[in-house]
Each structure stands twice: as structure tokens, then as C-alpha cells.
Amino acid sequence: MHLTLEFGGGLELLCESVKVHNVNVDLPKGADKLTMKDLLAWVRTNLIKERPEMFIKGESVRPGVLVLVNDCDWELSGQLDTTLEEKDVVVFISTLHGG
Amino acid sequence: MEADTKHKKPGTRLCCACNQRRAALKRPKTLEQICRECFYAVFEEEIHQVILENKLFKPGERIAIGASGGKDSTVLAYVLSELNRRHNYGLDLFLLSVDEGITGYRDDSLETVKRNELQYGLPLKIVSYKDLYGWTMDEIVKMIGLKNNCTFCGVFRRQALDRGAALLKVDKVATGHNADDIAETVLLNILRGDIARLSRCTSIITGEDGPIPRCKPFKYTYEKEIVMYAYFKKLDYFSTECIYSPNAYRGFAREFIKDLERIRPRAILDIIKSGEDFRIATSTKMPEQGTCERCGYISSQKWCKACVLLEGLNRGLPKLGIGRNQGLNSDAKEDIKKDGRTKSIESKQCGSLEF
């Protein structure tokens, strides 16, 4: 599944300072859809090159990281249960820095 | 057509305010689902109400906005500018920036403030630690090590803001401290038993008896909403953690607050409310306010904290002024005479937590 992932608020530093990633994510074995939960695991393994604890805590993002799917707060679409579709845009923004 | 079906997935909700547009975010404050346009409106209106209800400004005042180039101060500059215009506050707004001399952090964020100056049309003044104190943060950290950095920086920054504000001849300073910050501060002060600060830290206006009063228009504004506002409006801000902050004690309070917010977002405002309603027992002794003998700045001790810290730096005594019962004001004077080293609670080995 082709997706566009964006990292902001300093998170790009964990992905070698690249803010926008166009990726192709395989569905998990035997699954018929891709959820945010699957995507997070994929990002953790494939894109985060350092300090994963800044991005992920347990199964979800670290508290203080905002997630938007197609410019829409993932809290509205079920957070980890949000299903993703072809060409979706997912944005991760960290709020954990000085203001 | 394709776009329509894609956005009308099962579970796509409508804004609960206008009932027309697609909801774009869930407000932590109220748990409401709201679209972008209604979010802008309610975000700006709530801040306007906070300004009115707390009488933060008077027409004709000159106001310096503490601007770091970060998310809070950028959004504050943008919103205050906008509200000043829309509701005719009659204010003269300025951007005031402090250069602590932290390479790779502050030099980049100052570029952002310079852009903000042009983008928002607000005149900018930058004051630096080097000019004011003769030390940059980088030089200070080289001397004191990676502990207590925020203690030095915070104390110096507060004075730097006042000095800058005096140079600009403003009547007040507005800072971008948000609800999350204030809730963290309440917790920090409880954890440290700092009763004096606990009684002051939730005030929306502080320092009215000092050189320049300051206010926090974002006191009830959630950090998440500030970031969402900046994101949707595509506001230009700088977002990297200060390189010295991972060692800060505040980090623990922040982690805790963020975890709490996930379970019960309202907790942030409730902590602030608890902080506002604390009453100190009359039997508790509180420090009295006077002025610093050396520089005249507001102080509860003979010398203000900045002077104590500076003295320590200039004399090569990095622990001077750090920890309880410290500094030139009490028995520490004798300790210096005795053996050149000061007694301190934290000269004990106590892991990585330094108070």
C-alpha cells in the first residue's frame, strides 16, 4: 500500500532528517486491511533510525506526539484501529519541545 | 467523486459546532469533534475571553511578546496580532527574544523569530546573555557540567526578559506558557516542596510589584491545540529540543502529564485549578520580598539568584546557589571561608536527580 508519511516537530531527526517519506507498506500476513497499529510497527522497524523511545511507547506513539490521517486527528478515527487506504497521508507531529 | 467517497468513510464525523463540515480534530479540553474553521474561531475566541476576563491589557499599552521562535510564542504572536486588530485592543506589540548562546539550538530558532518579524510585521529586539552577563549558556555548561543547566538558564532568562522589556520601554511582557506548562510547574513545585512558588505559579499575571508585569494569555490553552492551530494555519515555527533539556527535572513532570492527558485530558485544567485554590497554612513561614543588594532586582534574599549564580561562575564555584540553604546569603558564607567548597544537599551522590 502506497502511503505518504510526514514527520514534524523534531521527529524528522529520528528519520535521518527527512520530513516526507513516500513508502510502500505490505499488509500483515493474513490481514485484509492495514491499521495504524500495523503502520506504527512498520515505521518503528523501517524508518526510525535512532532513539525509538522518542516516537513510540508500547504499541502506540509516545504521549505528546500528534497523529493526523489525511489532515484529520486520529482520535476521531479510532487511534490505533484507524484503517488506512491507498495514497493516505499520515502526519506525525511532536509537541515535546520548547515553545 | 473519488475524493468524496474516500472522505465519507464509515465513522467520518461532522463538526459538532457547525454540523456541516468534516471534523478535523477532537478538542482535549471538551472532547468535542470540530472542523478547522470552527476550531480557529473557538480557539481565538477563548483566548480573547481570557484576555478580557482577566483584564490582561489596557488600550495604549506597549506589550513585548517573549518570542523564542517556538510553537507557543509564534502562535501567541500571530493570535495576539490578530485579536489586537479584530477587537481593537489598541496595543503596540513587539517581539522580544533572548539569545542564551546555545549553538545549534538558539541560533536556528532566532532565524525563525526574524522571519516572524517580517511575517507578522512586529518589531523585534534581541538581548543576549553574553552582553548582559558575560557568559553564554555553552560557556556556562562547560563550567558547571550537564546538571542544573535549566536553573542557570531560567534565572538568567527571566532577568534578560526584564532588561529587554525595559530597553523597549514596554508596559508588560506576554509569554506563551500554555496549560500543559503550568500544570507541569504545579506538579514540580509540589514535588520539591516549593511553597512560595506554588502559591504564585498559577497566577495569570505575575510580577506586578516588580519591574515589568508579565501575563500568560495561553494559561488555559492546551499544547495540542496550539500545535494543531499552527499546523493547519501553516505557521512557521522552530521545533527542536534544547540540547541541555534531556537532563532537566521538568522532563519527569512532563512525561507524567502527557500520560495523564491520554487517560483523562481534563486533568491538565484540573491540576491548574487545584494550584489556584491552594491555600497556605498561616503557620508556614514564607519568604519576604525585597531587593538585591548588588543589582537592585527583586529578590527574597540579600542577593538575587542571578547575582549568586554569576558570582559562582566568576569565582569558579559552580554549585553556588544550587540546592537548599545555599548561596551567599546564609551560612554558606562561612562555608566558603572554611574550605572553599560549599555545603550542599546534593553534594551527596544521589543518582541522576538533582534538585
Descriptive report:
The complex is a heterodimer of chains A (99) and B (355). With 99 residues, chain A is mainly beta. Chain A is built from one helix and eight strands. In chain A, the strands form three sheets. Chain A has a four-stranded mixed beta sheet with strand order 2-1-8-6, with no helix packed on it. In chain A, strands 3-7 form a two-stranded antiparallel ribbon. Chain A has a two-stranded antiparallel ribbon with strand order 4-5. The longest helix of chain A has 11 residues, at 36-46. The radius of gyration of chain A is 13 Å and the shape is globular. The model of chain A has no long low-confidence stretch (mean pLDDT 93). Chain B is globular. Chain B has 14 helices and ten strands. A six-stranded mixed beta sheet of chain B has the order 5-4-3-6-8-7. In chain B, strands 1-2 form a two-stranded antiparallel sheet. The termini of chain B are far apart. In chain B, strand 7 and strand 8 (214-215) form a beta hairpin. Chain B has 355 residues and is an alpha/beta fold. The chains are: A mainly beta (99), B alpha/beta (355). Chains A and B meet through strand 8 of A and strand 1, helix 3, helix 10 and helix 11 of B.
Keywords:
heterodimer; A: about 100 residues; mainly beta; four-stranded mixed β-sheet; two-stranded antiparallel sheet; 1 helix; globular; B: about 350 residues; alpha/beta; six-stranded mixed β-sheet; 10 strands; about 45% helix; disordered N terminus; disordered C terminus; Beta-grasp_dom_sf (chain A)
Unreliable spans of chain A = none
What is the makeup of the main sheet of chain B? 6 strands, mixed
Read across the widest sheet of chain B, the strand sequence of neighbours is 5-4-3-6-8-7
Biggest interface goes to: A-B, 26 and 39 residues
**How would you classify the helix and strand content of chain A by structural class?**
mainly beta
Beta content of chain A:
25-35%
Q: Provide the structure class of chain B.
A: alpha/beta
Q: What's the alpha carbon Rg of chain B, rounded to whole Å?
A: 22 Å
Approximate helicity band of chain A: 10-25%
Beta-strand content estimate of chain B: 5-15%
How many β-strand stretches of chain B?
Answer: 10
